[in-house]
Amino acid sequence: MNNVFEDIPTSVPSEIFEEIVTTQNLRIERILSYGQSSPEQGWYDQDENEWVVVLSGFGVIEFEDGREVHLKKGDYLNIKAHEKHKVKATSLKEVTVWLAIFYV
């Protein structure tokens, strides 16, 4: 048995992506952020759909069309395949723990 809150480092100089489960049609990742955001240029443009939930901290997702979604602990969002987005901000006060489920 494992726990998504175990082994969270006190220092996260760059985002940490950890695969938890991978199958042909599904991938589950734990993502740890501490004040990181996506680069100014470029967007995530994924082949899979992504369902993401914030388990601690907060995150702000920006979409190419200008929408911003502010996610706090317990908030989740479904991002359709090829819906261009980026992480605009994450918490500087605590590690943001995301659980992301990528599916076709």
Please state the structural category.
mainly beta
Q: Tell me the major beta sheet.
A: 5 strands, antiparallel
Q: Separation of termini? A: 27 Å
- Rg on CA atoms, Å: 13 Å
Q: Roughly what is the average pLDDT, rounded to an integer?
A: 96
Share of β-strand residues: over 45%
Continuous helix count: 0
Give the SSE order as H and E letters: EEEEEEEE
Coarse morphology: globular
Helix content: under 10%
How many beta-strand runs? 8
Unreliably modeled segments: none
Biggest sheet strand order reads 1-2-8-3-6
In short:
The protein is mainly β.
Structure, described:
0% of the residues lie in helices and 50% in strands. The chain is mostly beta strands and 104 residues long. Strands 1-2-8-3-6 form a five-stranded antiparallel β-sheet, with no helix packed on it. Strand 4 and strand 5 form a beta hairpin.
Features:
globular; 8 strands; 50% strand; mainly beta
SSE arrangement:
Layout: E1 16-22, E2 26-33, E3 49-56, E4 58-63, E5 68-72, E6 76-79, E7 85-90, E8 96-103
Antiparallel strand pairs: 1-2, 2-8, 3-6, 3-8, 4-5, 4-7
